[in-house]
Inverse folding.
């Protein structure tokens, strides 16, 4: 019999991804979705930072999927698309889905989601992307995204509102200080904290010396040797989970069915 391949990427977390926009105002330098959009000529590098709401995806009816749904995956929930995202999230929840809400979060947006969808609390898990705890690093790699303090405040709000909370530090933007990030966020995480390397380095446009320097810093801090050292420090921490990029380095067998390693 043919052996099932280990699932990777978003398939580790969900059986289905849902999006309602093209482009994202976070304008992350490492964005995999922009790379896909460029490859298939759905966008340009310059236009990606402009979020275009796909009204047909906002208005359509969503079914009950057979497993957890990740929303969104190729854009974020931002002030310029919040009402559209809120509507899609509501439809997914009303259909009975368990939804993994993934975002570099704004406090006001998370407060509204928590307040408006409190009756669906058991169907929602928040997973906030926080790849570093210093704003200089975050603002370089994710120039349109919220500050560290804003993201941490959103995490605290969701945690205190008794929603299931999780953090994704994929990519680790400052792996040399990952211990500080873990220590600072652990008290507000009820489910898991995921660590992962920066993938698709070829998607980063090296259009300045600063980008080249920062990219070399990323590469230097995610060598196999340094990843194994991070793994050794955190392997006994029950909150820490490992993305496929790290599993490959340290020899962990991944799940073979989508949505089962979440």
């Amino acid at each position: 019999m043919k052996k099932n391949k280990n699932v990777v990427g978003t398939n580790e977390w969900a059986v289905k991804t849902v999006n309602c926009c093209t482009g994202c105002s976070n304008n992350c330098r490492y964005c995999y979705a922009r790379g896909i959009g460029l490859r298939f000529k759905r966008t340009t590098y310059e236009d990606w930072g402009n979020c275009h709401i796909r009204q047909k995806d906002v208005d359509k009816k969503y079914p009950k999927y057979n497993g957890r749904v990740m929303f969104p995956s190729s854009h974020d929930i931002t002030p310029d698309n919040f009402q559209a995202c809120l509507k899609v999230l509501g439809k997914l929840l009303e259909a009975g889905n368990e939804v993994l809400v993934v975002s570099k979060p704004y406090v006001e947006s998370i407060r509204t989601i928590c307040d408006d969808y409190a009756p669906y609390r058991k169907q929602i898990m928040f997973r906030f992307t926080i790849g570093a705890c210093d704003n200089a690093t975050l603002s370089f790699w994710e120039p349109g995204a919220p500050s560290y303090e804003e993201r941490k405040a959103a995490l605290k709000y969701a945690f205190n509102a008794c929603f299931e909370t999780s953090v994704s530090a994929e990519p680790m933007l400052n792996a040399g200080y990952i211990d500080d990030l873990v220590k600072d966020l652990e008290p507000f995480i009820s489910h898991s904290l995921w660590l992962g390397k920066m993938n698709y380095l070829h998607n980063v446009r090296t259009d300045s010396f600063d980008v080249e320097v920062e990219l070399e810093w990323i590469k230097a801090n995610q060598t196999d040797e340094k990843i194994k050292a991070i793994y050794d420090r955190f392997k006994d921490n029950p909150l820490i989970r490992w993305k496929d990029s790290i599993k490959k380095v340290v020899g962990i067998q991944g799940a073979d069915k989508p949505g089962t390693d979440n």
Summary: The beta strands are 16-17, 21-22, 52-53, 69-71, 99-103, 124-129, 164-169, 192-195, 240-242. The mean pLDDT is 95. The longest helix spans residues 82-94.
